[in-house]
Design a protein that fits this description.
275 residues, mainly alpha, MetI-like fold, 2 domains
Length: 275
């Protein structure tokens, strides 16, 4: 019993230490965004002695941040919608139909994730240049879709395989066709997986930096992750607005996560068997 309590104490202590180490950088970002210039460069002031929102005002009203924000939202929503549409259809086809070489095709899809993004930047650039899509949001959407779609398909296959075929068969015996059984039976049961995969697609597109920085050159077409670099100069960094822009860029991620969390709970409830 004593050994068990000691083990629990050690595990809880390690968990608290890891949580604090993970949370402290975010706390520093938050405090820095609320500091004035004279406090930011005072190494003895970790917690601001007074709070100011001048950094947020500068970001929102004296820069192109809102335009960058809308560009990222536009690209991320379209990429998420397209990727999930094709991922759900492809995964359902792989799991519910007898397709010759389906397992090899799934492995081939997963194989594309083995290549690092830097290695693919040159082929992407050549293709986008030939399609005249350099410095365009459409080109960035195509690249992001090709990058997130393989994992989305693989992830959805995992969730569809966990749903017994007999449940869908029973629905079709009761008069549903294939489409109706998917909408009324499979979709509610797979909703947790769909929500998790949707969150992944959105986050990958929203946080993408390398391709947006490589293919977008027009200032007003930049995404928020690239636009944040405006506060990083060659010889100095404007830390206050930089941290304020980081906090503002996290808002849609937090909102989207909360929304998906609600869907996860709703999907689990809808897919439950009631006695």
């Amino acid at each position: 019993m004593k050994r068990t309590r000691l083990e629990k104490f050690i595990l809880y202590s390690l968990a608290i230490i890891i949580a604090l180490c993970s949370f402290l950088p975010f706390l520093w970002v938050f405090f820095t965004a609320l500091k004035g210039p004279e406090q930011i460069y005072d190494m003895n002031q970790i917690i601001p002695t007074y709070v100011t929102f001048e950094n947020f005002k500068k970001v929102l009203f004296q820069s192109n941040f809102i335009r960058y924000f809308m560009n990222s939202a536009y690209i991320s929503i379209i990429v998420t919608g397209i990727s999930m549409l094709f991922a759900v259809m492809a995964a359902y086809g792989f799991c519910r139909y007898r397709i010759l070489g389906a397992e090899k095709m799934k492995l081939g899809i997963l194989f594309t994730k083995m290549f690092p993004g830097v290695l693919l930047s040159i082929p992407y650039y050549v293709i986008m240049q030939k399609m005249n899509l350099i410095d365009s949001h459409l080109g960035l959407i195509i690249i992001n879709c090709s990058f997130v779609l393989p994992f989305a398909v693989w992830n959805m296959c995992t969730f569809f395989l966990q749903i017994p075929w007999e449940i869908e068969e029973s629905a079709m015996i009761d008069g549903c066709n294939r489409f109706q059984s998917f909408i009324k039976v499979i979709f509610p049961m797979a909703k947790p997986g769909i929500s998790a995969t949707t969150l992944y697609c959105f986050l990958m597109s929203w946080d993408e930096f390398m391709y947006a920085n490589t293919f977008i050159s027009t200032t007003l077409k930049k995404t928020v992750q690239v636009g944040i670099r405006d506060y990083i100069g060659e010889y100095s960094t404007d830390w206050g607005p930089l941290m304020a822009s980081v906090i503002l860029s996290l808002i849609p991620v937090i909102i989207f996560f909360v929304f998906v969390q609600d869907n996860l709970v709703g999907g689990l409830s809808a897919g439950a068997v009631k006695g």
